[in-house]
Amino acid sequence: MFENLSDRLSGVLDRLTKQGALSEDDVKTALREVRVALLEADVSLPVARAFIKKVQDQATGQAVTKSVTPGQQVVKIVHDALVETLSGEGDPGALKIDNPPAPILMVGLQGSGKTTTTAKLAKRLKEKEGKRVLMASLDVNRPAAMEQLEILGKQIGVDTLPIVKGEDPVAIAKRAKTQASLGGYDVYMLDTAGRLHIDQELIQQAADVRDVANPRETLLVVDGLTGQDAVNVAEEFDDKIGVTGVVLTRMDGDGRGGAALSMRAVTGKPIRFVGLGEKMDAIETFEPERIAGRILGMGDIVSLVEKAQETLEAEQAERMMRRFQKGQFNMNDLKMQLEQMQKMGGMEGVMGMMPGMGKMAKQMESAGIDDKIITRQIALIQSMTKKERANPKLLQASRKKRIAKGAGLEVSELNKLLKMQRQMGDMMKKMGKMGKGGMLKQAMK
Ligand code: GDP
């Protein structure tokens, strides 16, 4: 796939001798690589150009912080500039839903994930904010779409407006408003029809609905994997209908997130949420840092480290990083990691943030290792002696049996745990090497 930007930069820049400040040549050399990375991440050329220009002006002459390389320094500057560009004002997750019932209009192309996102947001509003939500499908051309919303509604325990055959979208929107008022709902969500391409009829329909519903929020749902197309779609929708924010779906896929940067730069509209899968919980508030990390091709190591910092003593974290960089990873480390995982919202939460770890998390899942047994795994580790924990290779068959028994588990569980420790050790070693390219270490400062 893509070559990691930090590897690329360290290749180019770590050979440079360290000076007190970034020279124009250093910056230029580095930014050539950054530009390629941006384009590979699907950032449009004009946006990439403008961005590079801005960073170049900022970076030239900037002092190189002690103990980092010019390459790392540039990555940091680029990262910060990305975050700045991606950030909107205020909390992207705060929907304007005062004055009940508050209408939210959902627009977008067919297949963008609009209906799924409508239901995901409804569930979020219900569970996180305790709101009563009514959902209505306005897709009169596709009865299947109306049924889909109804099915999702049942699944998440959110009411949908009963389907009346032959009604037009404006009539449905009016009925939704009436029902929402009479039924004491806080929010009603209007899932408009999609088309494969933008056409006059689609836009007119959405505009008509907008005019009767007077939505507090008009959220445009776009497929984050479609790159530049997504940006064109956003421009057009915003032009014709006016949107208050964008939801980027399929950010769980291989897309590098460049669409987010282009979208923000071109339309000026804030990205509010990202869709991270098909499940109803797979939606998150947009975090510029995460996308910046992704565009730079460094997973979310930065935010992972930040999260770790919150929960770990700084000193402990540093010791841990130093050990990992040397490729040391024993049962004590694994135990600490497992405990961290519990704190950070389970395996998936942590793994998803590290490059290449998503796949590993899936492997572990299929190997039967999941959050439920983290507690048991910790128990297994606790049953080991100090020596065994430091060097699990010492474990003989008879000891394994005793330890498993002590924790009330099968030996196979212990073997799985040992495999996990080896795999994670290998991976940490790799990351340690990358750490020379410094994000891990640098982010600890
Ligand atoms: P609509 O035509 O815009 O209403 O699109 P749907 O909501 O029907 O979604 C189309 C397909 O995309 C469905 O199979 C969804 O499960 C899937 N989908 C929606 N959002 C996401 C997402 O964030 N990630 C992934 N992987 N799939 C998604």
From TrEMBL:
PROSITE patterns: SRP54. SUPFAM superfamilies: P-loop containing nucleoside triphosphate hydrolases, Signal peptide-binding domain. Its EC number is 3.6.5.4. It is found in: Cell inner membrane; Cytoplasm. It catalyses: GTP + H2O = GDP + phosphate + H(+). SMART domains: AAA, SRP54, SRP54_N. GO terms for biological process: SRP-dependent cotranslational protein targeting to membrane. It holds the Pfam family SRP54_N. GO terms for cellular component: plasma membrane; signal recognition particle. Its main location: membrane. Residues 270-283 form the SRP54-type proteins GTP-binding domain. One of its GO terms (molecular function) is GTPase activity. Belongs to the GTP-binding SRP family. SRP54 subfamily. Involved in targeting and insertion of nascent membrane proteins into the cytoplasmic membrane. Binds to the hydrophobic signal sequence of the ribosome-nascent chain (RNC) as it emerges from the ribosomes. The SRP-RNC complex is then targeted to the cytoplasmic membrane where it interacts with the SRP receptor FtsY. Interaction with FtsY leads to the transfer of the RNC complex to the Sec translocase for insertion into the membrane, the hydrolysis of GTP by both Ffh and FtsY, and the dissociation of the SRP-FtsY complex into the individual components. Composed of three domains: the N-terminal N domain, which is responsible for interactions with the ribosome, the central G domain, which binds GTP, and the C-terminal M domain, which binds the RNA and the signal sequence of the RNC. HAMAP family: SRP54 (MF_00306). This is Signal recognition particle protein. It comes from Roseovarius pacificus. The gene is ffh.
